[in-house]
Amino acid sequence: MEKYNNWKRKFYAIWAGQAVSLITSAILQMAIIFYLTEKTGSAMVLSMASLVGFLPYAILGPAIGVLVDRHDRKKIMIGADLIIAAAGAVLAIVAFCMELPVWMIMIVLFIRSIGTAFHTPALNAVTPLLVPEEQLTKCAGYSQSLQSISYIVSPAVAALLYSVWDLNAIIAIDVLGAVIASITVAIVRIPKLGNQVQSLEPNFIREMKEGVVVLRQNKGLFALLLLGTLYTFG
Questions:
Q1: Do residues 62 and 211 make contact, with C-beta atoms less than 8 angstroms apart?
Q2: Do residue 82 and residue 44 come from a single domain?
Q3: So where does this one cross the membrane (predicted)?
């Protein structure tokens, strides 16, 4: 099909940009934990940081997924990357002028989590538009492997960078990663989904209910979602 022309070049361009952004974001997340541990030594502060960084994604994720299906995924991905970059830039400017207050770090983590909540479903929805059906499983495996690698590598890299640089430099690297990701998405032509979704009568609540019904009917899917949530909190 015409829309799959040069799909490898398009997919790997976006994948490379997202790889840079995902890894730098994971490194910054760990560096913030090191920073809070060093400055506060409070287990409660660390727990609050984890909750603030996760809850918006967990709570708003299903609703945002419905919204993403109704709008331009490319614009959503670029916007989410730029929001994450802007939040990091503000944190870097404040860190350059003064010691970072804990409350500001919490706000930035909250904003980054919202950005991720928009970005992740948009990226997942874009992949089938770029990749032929017979290649979807393999490409999805690449994305899952990238996430696993970022979780494994980020603590060691963050510890190394935090030992030689300050938090400000690591924030700058993350901002650069988000900008690179947004540029790679911007330069790739993503096929339009067509008018089939836009022609449906908007019914946000109905679609949310359908998602809940699917979870209730599919015990395995619900168990997987629950385990993923417990793993994230753990």
A1: yes
A2: yes
A3: 12-37, 43-64, 171-190
